[in-house]
Amino acid sequence: xxxxxxxxxxxxxxxxxxxxxxxxxxxxxxxxxxxxxxxxxxxxxxxxxxxxxxxxxxxxxxxxxxxxxxxxxxxxxxxxxxxxxxxxxxxxxxxxxxxxxxxxxxxxxxxxxxxxxxxxxxxxxxxxxxxxxxxxxxxxxxxxxxxxxxxxxxxxxxxxxxxxxxxxxxxxxxxxxxxxxxxxxxxxxxxxxxxxxxxxxxxxxxxxxxxxxxxxxxxxxxxxxxxxxxxxxxxxxxxxxxxxxxxxxxxxxxxxxxxxxxxxxxxxx
Amino acid sequence: xxxxxxxxxxxxxxxxxxxxxxxxxxxxxxxxxxxxxxxxxxxxxxxxxxxxxxxxxxxxxxxxxxxxxxxxxxxxxxxxxxxxxxxxxxxxxxxxxxxxxxxxxxxxxxxxxxxxxxxxxxxxxxxxxxxxxxxxxxxxxxxxxxxxxxxxxxxxxxxxxxxxxxxxxxxxxxxxxxxxxxxxxxxxxxxxxxxxxxxxxxxxxxxxxxxxxxxxxxxxxxxxxxxxxxxxxxxxxxxxxxxxxxxxxxxxxxxxxxxxxxxxxxxxxxxxxxxxxxxxxxxxxxxxxxxxxxxxxxxxxxxxxxxxxxxxxxxxxxxxxxxxxxxxxxxxxxxxxxxxxxxxxxxxxxxxxxxxxxxxxxxxxxxxxxxxxxxxxxxxxxxxxxxxxxxxxxxxxxxxxxxxxxxxxxxxxxxxxxxxxx
Lengths: 269, 422
Ligand SMILES: Nc1ncnc2c1ncn2[C@@H]1O[C@H](COP(=O)(O)OP(=O)(O)OP(=O)(O)O)[C@@H](O)[C@H]1O
Ligand SMILES: [Mg+2]
Prior knowledge:
The complex is a heterodimer of chains A (about 270) and B (about 425).
Chain A: H1 2-14, E1 26-39, E2 42-55, E3 59-64, H2 70-77, E4 85-90, E5 93-94, H3 100-110, E6 111-114, H4 126-135, H5 141-154, H6 170-182, E7 188-192, H7 200-215, E8 219-223, H8 227-230, E9 235-240, E10 243-249, H9 259-266
Parallel strand pairs in A: 3-8, 3-9, 6-7, 7-8
Antiparallel strand pairs in A: 1-2, 1-4, 4-5, 9-10
Helix pairs in contact in A: 1-3, 4-5, 4-6, 5-6, 6-7
Chain B: H1 2-28, H2 30-68, E1 72-77, H3 103-106, E2 110-126, E3 129-139, H4 141-147, E4 151-154, H5 159-163, E5 168-171, H6 173-178, E6 189-192, E7 195-203, E8 220-224, H7 225-231, E9 237-243, H8 249-263, E10 274-278, H9 279-322, H10 324-332, H11 337-372, H12 385-412, H13 415-420
Parallel strand pairs in B: 3-8, 5-7
Antiparallel strand pairs in B: 1-9, 1-10, 2-3, 2-6, 2-9, 4-7, 5-8, 6-7
The structure holds adenosine-5'-triphosphate and magnesium ion.
């Protein structure tokens, strides 16, 4: 069972099907992706026909008003959720048909997720928290320890590995969470409002960390409400009502910026 | 191929990871864990203690069989369960000495037999010293041989003592010490009640007996069978017999039964008013009782394990809902359903094992307690290894059974909803 499900993953990773139209280095390819929630008789189109391509070592910020579908998009991209319709290929592999177990494996090996509220396990040390995803992949105790230490050093917490979450500041907690997301060397690092619970100064230092990771070759996509956070990215995608209405490099100003977004942008969900 | 080899390895790691996590979780919620496992602790403690007691009793009986010899047959009056004698006065069905006259001629499989009487609570004195509550046993000479209580000093009671109803006696070393008699006390006199008796010998102290009842530490005096009627006119009589070999023990019993029915004038079709039992019979009866006790104890244990199991299930459900976010997180970083399920299942099992361990500990304490109660003859009680295995087996099963539902619940959680929980 397990073996059969995981085989295609390995195969697809090794060789890219020649039929794929997307250019070299496209690691995420969304085509007409929708996500429809049914609440009673009502149908909410949280994602309404998203088409998107992400390339290797891109640094993307997703912006939009509250309820515009940013988190939903991240969940679909992070294989935590399935699209209602459409096509989603990660690393050239179609994910829409994968079983739950195979999706879990994809999450483990290809995706690093950073949450707004850190989601660290309180009773474990920073090191244990960072090691955690490796428990679910094929790594021995020693490798786990080594890799977790290395990645903690990479996020600048080499001297905090024994600390428990309640002995860490907010910014440090988020660094631990980022280290945890990176420990499996994911294809893509995803963060849903990673600075949402942090003050401006700490946000800035976390964003500097993201910048550094990007320079080191990491592909990053993050959701934010704040322009100054988004400006760290190289590309900004703006959403409204489950649709992408603007997608351009961050050094260009958006074409039509809706007046409402500024109001909504301030508050976080 | 490589993956095939790795699959069990992955599982193994998941397994010890889960055990490790479970330990941490139990340690983090110490009080809760202790309270939760009390049901299992009680269940396991009582089952191990009961098994220990039965094992000890059985070991005791077996050693008794060895010292008494399995050829020994006990004969005593007994009210039948049916028939006209059902409500008879116990005195009316007592044995009379003449019931056994000529027994050896009619029972070819019986090697020897001896009548005996018991007089409890006699006061025995020597000069100013006196000891109360001494059991006086009137025995025929052969009783000693059957019971194998050798005389260490002096001589055993003889047939002449019997015929002449001599006032002679054998005492045990305990009584000798209590009366402050010399080591060599042969020929000295003691008073039993108001009658003077010559001491002719000292017998080995009685091997501790499971049949002796609650008077184990009482001293004993042996007098000739007939002489005992001088001390007390009306006495109940019991008989010890010995078959020629273990093979003919059943024959001997049948012969005795047939002989006694005739001497006691029991009409055909009426039930026996006595009981003929070998040690083997007693062992069989014990085994039957042991099975019943085990079943009753098993029932009680079953109930307490059930209650304990429900407690475990409850606490695991609480744990799952408390740790919903953790489950969501684990799923988000790539834990499969099986991994989550294993984690919670193992937590339940470890919790139960912990209860089992504490239970076996308490069972051991109980056993030690039972073993040290005086006069209960449980000093050979111990928890056999298989009972410990059984306890852990049961605890584990309870853990798996009652942990399954919470574990499945945890495994089924949707990661996004779980992360949004609270
Ligand atoms: N589980 C759900 N059931 C029903 N509707 C949902 C569910 N999750 C999200 N939605 C709806 O989908 C839409 C998009 O939600 P989403 O969380 O993606 O917004 P968002 O852009 O992340 O907002 P915010 O900036 O406030 O986090 C919203 O209208 C929301 O009400
Ligand atoms: Mg959101």
